[in-house]
Amino acid sequence: MGAAQPDTATEVEKGQTKVDAGLLPRDHYKYRLPRWRYMARQKLLPLVRWETPYLAYFQEHCRTPFLDSYFALTANLGTHTFFMIMLPVLFWFGYTTLGRGMVHILASGVFFSGFLKVLIALSLPRPLSPPLHRITMSGSAALEYGFPSTHSTNAVSVALYGILSLRSTPDVSTTLRFSLEALAWVYAISIVLGRLYCGMHGFFDVIVGICLGAVLAIVDWVSRDAVDAFVFSGSWQVPVVFIVVGLIMVRIHPEPADSCPCFDDGVAFAAVVMGCDVGHWHYAQSSWSWNEPVPATVPYSYEELGLTKSVLRVVAGVCVIFAWREFMKPTLHHFLPPLYRVIESIGLSLPRKHFTPASEYKKVPRLPDDTLFGLSELPALIHSFRRPRSDSVGPQSAADAYETLAYREKKRRESIGTSQSRSPSVPRDVAKYENEMGNGNVDVKALVVDSDDEKAEAEVFRKIERPRVRYDVEVVTKLVVYAGIAWFAVEGIPIFLEIIGLGIASHGFEAR
């Protein structure tokens, strides 16, 4: 089957330089992107550079220890882990319509923001550090392209959809409606403003993210009745349509020029939609679900179950989800590589960039999940909340490193023949931040290169976040694992809760 296969990710990386998303040497993008994408990227890069000193001015004049911790912590409310844990709870307590809407807008937000990051965002980097401080609880944020902000897209779509749902519910008191709407606004503003405050995104990133989130929320709100009518029709076409459309969406997702996890996120949430809608289609036809207020509603009554059993429902359900993930992920990683090698040997494989083919490795090592943490990552998660933020200045990734080098060269060229230290259009109060751009310390020993020109173009920083090796079997693994998580959330776990005595039917309620 070809060359000897290394056992681990380290061996796969040997002799190679893995670099992060956003700013490799310009020739990298010139030869890997279609010409229109490359030229558009070069046109938009000045915008990222122009807004950086203004972001630094805003950050320095607003910072307090409380806000550092607040925005670092609230950023977790826009992550995949938060949504993958909280969304199933809506279904288990009977909020089927709201839960389905949230699944659809979040899945579309993650998919289309990732689509834009790769296809239209043109590999745009995050704002420079220095002058910005990067305040975050995530060690992998810098691996993605900067534009648009997925956090902002998700926050706005969730808040707007929640407000629309509240205003369409007549039996909610005025006080409760006002309180919940205010909470939705606080949620959205905290996450959007936090992306700027934490130095993770620029104004352009979050503005486009806000617009995208609002559009997706409105589109889903307008189309929700038609989609639900199709899903609950009972037709055999439902699973076929959602599975085929989901696979097509995964296939047409554009390939990034760098190893960017935005594709992985798109796969995961396409799978979630498939599992959710196919699960609801089947659950609605079973005797386990209620048909009121909508089909496929999970039977639940707080008056009947009480606080203790209501909490136990959540604990039991979350445990099932993590058990499924912990079992299925390594199982697929064990059985899929031999199958992939057979497929590859007869020429039927469809390789994607940045994924190592099965013919080049013997086994897949235990890997962290880029989308949802597992039980093995729980200690690290707890530690991150005990020490909730990191505050760093300087490049965190090769993307940052190459932007620093590119901006340094830009300043050098502009300084020839002029004594100006700042751009004429930059206010004096902001000029000091512009002067800090491109001043990161570099380590020219990080790469072996052949000439001084290549050194200047290919330097990377000593301590950067490098993307891990990714394996071809991970795409199918994500599809199966995340479709399974969604199916368990909407059908498997509700039935399981009834069987173990934490449901309504087991307490004498008749299914409606």
TrEMBL record:
<keyword id="KW-0378">Hydrolase</keyword>
<dbReference type="GO" id="GO:0005789">
    <property type="term" value="C:endoplasmic reticulum membrane"/>
</dbReference>
<dbReference type="InterPro" id="IPR036938">
    <property type="entry name" value="PAP2/HPO_sf"/>
</dbReference>
<keyword id="KW-0812">Transmembrane</keyword>
<feature type="transmembrane region" description="Helical">
    <location>
        <begin position="70"/>
        <end position="93"/>
    </location>
</feature>
<feature type="transmembrane region" description="Helical">
    <location>
        <begin position="105"/>
        <end position="125"/>
    </location>
</feature>
<comment type="similarity">
    <text>Belongs to the type 2 lipid phosphate phosphatase family.</text>
</comment>
<feature type="transmembrane region" description="Helical">
    <location>
        <begin position="203"/>
        <end position="222"/>
    </location>
</feature>
<keyword id="KW-1133">Transmembrane helix</keyword>
<protein>
    <submittedName>
        <fullName>PAP2 domain-containing protein</fullName>
    </submittedName>
</protein>
<keyword id="KW-0256">Endoplasmic reticulum</keyword>
<feature type="domain" description="Phosphatidic acid phosphatase type 2/haloperoxidase">
    <location>
        <begin position="97"/>
        <end position="221"/>
    </location>
</feature>
<dbReference type="GO" id="GO:0042392">
    <property type="term" value="F:sphingosine-1-phosphate phosphatase activity"/>
</dbReference>
<feature type="transmembrane region" description="Helical">
    <location>
        <begin position="229"/>
        <end position="250"/>
    </location>
</feature>
<feature type="region of interest" description="Disordered">
    <location>
        <begin position="410"/>
        <end position="429"/>
    </location>
</feature>
<keyword id="KW-0472">Membrane</keyword>
<dbReference type="Pfam" id="PF01569">
    <property type="entry name" value="PAP2"/>
</dbReference>
<dbReference type="InterPro" id="IPR000326">
    <property type="entry name" value="PAP2/HPO"/>
</dbReference>
